[in-house]
Amino acid sequence: MALVRLSGVIAARGGLGPGGLSLEGIAPVLERTFGLKRLAGVVLAINSPGGSPVQSSLIGQRIRALAEKHKVPVVACVEDAAASGGYWIACAADEIVADPSSIVGSIGVISAGFGLEGLAEKLGVERRLTTAGGRNPSSTRSAPSSPGSRRGWRRCSRRCTPSSPVG
To answer: Is 84 in the active site?
Structure first.
């Protein structure tokens, strides 16, 4: 059995500071690990709050492809957290093992903003926006949220959220 530690924030350039995860950073480790002679299996020790959905998907796909190519089982062992993209990567394994107090799961999309139109009006702040196209102002931070823009955001977030992380 071989052990691969996957720790940190998942981002395109190795996360935020040392210890982050990206396909570019982890691919050589995965290639070497899965290429070991007489390999019985791979254990992924995962401790990540998540991060980039694209990097999470790429890492998960690489793990799955290597496991199938070398015909070895993969077990994900969650340490403190495999949240969001960390869980996505864990789903590339054949089995996930976690402590009952580990934070596991939570793949989703979130958008936040502030309803400042009343405050802006009170302060005499006028919003000036120039756009081209019919839907551009639907997601500005200071504009009132309309039922139509909320429905559009929910439709978009459902399309962007995988029903199955790896597949």
So the answer is: yes
| Inter-residue contact 5 to 43 (CB < 8 Å) | no
Summarised one tens digit per residue, pLDDT across range 72-112 is 999 999 999 999 999 999 999 999 999 999 999 877 666 67
Q: Which helix (H) or strand (E) holds 27?
A: helix 23-34
Q: 144: phi > 0 → left, psi -120 to 50 → alpha, else beta; which?
A: beta
35-58 confidence digits (pLDDT tens): 999 999 999 999 999 999 999 999
Tell me the C-alpha distance between 167 and 19, whole Å.
27
Ordered DSSP codes for 35-98: T-TT---EEEEEEE--B-HHHHHHHHHHHHHHHHHHT--EEEEEEEEEETHHHHHHTTSSEEEE
3 state DSSP class of 119: helix
Both structure tokens of 90:
């864990």
pTM above 0.85, yes or no: no
Task: Break the chain down into helix, strand, coil percent, rounded to 5.
Answer: 35, 20, 45
State the catalytic residue, choosing from 84, 111, 139, 163: 84
Taking the C-alpha atoms of residue 107 and residue 162, their distance in angstroms, rounded to an integer, is 8
